[in-house]
Amino acid sequence: MLQKIYDWIDDRVDITPLWRDIADHEVPEHVNPAHHFSAFVYCFGGLTFFVTVIQILSGMFLTMYYVPDIENAWRSVYYLQTEVAHGQIVRGMHHWGASVVIVMLFLHTLRVFFQGAYKKPRELNWMVGVLLFFVMLALGLTGYLLPWDNKAYFATVVTLEIAEGVPFIGEMAKTLLNGDPSIVGAQTLARFFAIHVFFLPAALFVLMAIHFIMIRKQGISGPL
Amino acid sequence: MSEKKQQVSRRQFLNYSLTGVGGFMAASMLAPMVRFAIDPVLQATGGEDMHAVVDVSEITEEPQRFDWTVEQVDAWYTSDVTHSAWVYKDEHDEIVALSPTCKHLGCAVNWAGNPDYPDQFFCPCHDGRYYKNGLNVPDTPPNAALDLFEYEVKDGTLYLGNVKENPVQEGGA
What are the TM regions of this chain, as residue ranges (chain A) (predicted)? Predict the structure, then answer.
């Protein structure tokens, strides 16, 4: 049945080369942990992607209940965590995943660094990777405010102070992030929400696409 | 199946196990999220309490609108909302409390809302009409009678609860 549906579609739009391009490729021996166990270090990039997928999915589901409003943000989080079935798990996935993804990203970066895999011709991909790292950190930072509890609030106050410390443009940067020159409140929360769920994920997707296209184009770096 | 014993090749075996493990991982990831999302559908709808509406002595043979306020808990938001009913005593001195919600598309109906039909309920949205007992007038948009409130009288006060289907349906349905 499935085969028939697949054939029907493939007959018309020839999708086989499309997915073969994405999914069907050789794994070199030096990257395969079955040959050299130490090759498990090559997993961290994929694990980063895997956790990112979890973050995207759990985040999408969380917005079904969460509202970015200072009166209701905390209450909606409390509600979804205590009253909605599996709310604690879904929020837990997003909460812990946010830390795990940074850890994986860091391990991936260490592997690439110590293997010298960033060297010519892969410098561009290293740069894109660094941008991805910044986007991921920014996602963690903006997401931290959203539950609108005391920890979130004061962490954001500190972040904004740091932004203000930038020479020359500090004050402007702070107001831009904050939405108001002095009050950390309604506008800040709305802004952080928009940045967290629309702007940064959009940047993340574009950068990830570039990152993956480049690795497929250039191939994985050779053995040490 | 065929006359030959089916052999599972290494490649097939690997394919099946990888698909199985992958499917299990995807399922365990998605199961809590899906359950989380469909929770509103599965939450038990508790029966509505009875609410004091009006002193029975105020109820006449002419339908009158009475309002009462209920504390409504909407997830994390609690507020007071007003409900209404059209209440009268019928010829057997029985209390009839009709829901004002039009059975066509849910607007609010009014008794004698149209001067041309002073003894009918009228819905201003699409000119739906109902007789005094709630039965929808044939050839007007609504296709069912106005719902009835469950009621009880305690110490001379009328209490209203859930709405239920009106027994006076067209064709005795």
Answer: 39-67, 96-114, 126-146, 192-215
What per-residue confidence (pLDDT) applies to B172? 47
pLDDT at A88: 96
Tell me: do B80 and B161 sit in the same domain. Answer: yes
Return d(Cα B115, Cα B105) in angstroms, integer. 22
**Domains in chain A, ordered, with CATH?**
37-217 (1.20.810.10)
Neighbours of B123 (CB within 10 A): 27
Supply the range of the domain harboring residue B62.
51-172
Q: How confident is the model at residue B173 (pLDDT cuts 50, 70, 90)?
A: very low
Task: Give the mean model confidence (pLDDT) for residues A2-11.
Answer: 94
Residue B119 lies in a domain: yes
> B73 to chain A: nearest residue by CA?
A79
Say which DSSP state B88 is in: E
**Residue B148: closest CA among B127, B162, B163:** B163
pLDDT in tens, A58-71: 999 999 999 999 99
- Residue whose structure tokens are 């990830």: A208
> Which of A26, A21, A46 is CA-nearest to residue A208?
A46
pTM of the model: 0.84
Closest CA to B166 of B151, B150, B152, B147: B147
Domain count, chain B: 2
Nearest in space to B86 (alpha carbons), one of B152, B129, B147: B147
Same domain, B87 and B161: yes
Tell me what the pLDDT averaged over chain B comes to: 89
Which residue is closest to A87 within chain B, CA to CA?
Answer: B36
Helix, strand, coil percentages, rounded to 5, for chain A: 75, 0, 25
**Whole-complex ipTM:** 0.85
Same domain, B87 and B118: yes
Q: Looking at beta carbons, which residues of chain A come within 8 Å of B32?
A: 86, 89-90, 93
* Structure-token pair, residue B147: 């719902």
Instruction: Find chain B residues with C-beta within 8 A of A84's C-beta.
Output: 36, 39
Q: Exposed e or buried b for every residue in B80-116, given b needs 16+ CB within 10 A?
A: eeebebbbbeeeeeebbbbbbbbbbeeeebbbebeee
Does any domain span residue B4? no
How far apart CA A197 and CA A62 sit, in angstroms, is 11
Of the partner residues A78, A79, A90, the one whose CB lies closest to the CB of residue B36: A90
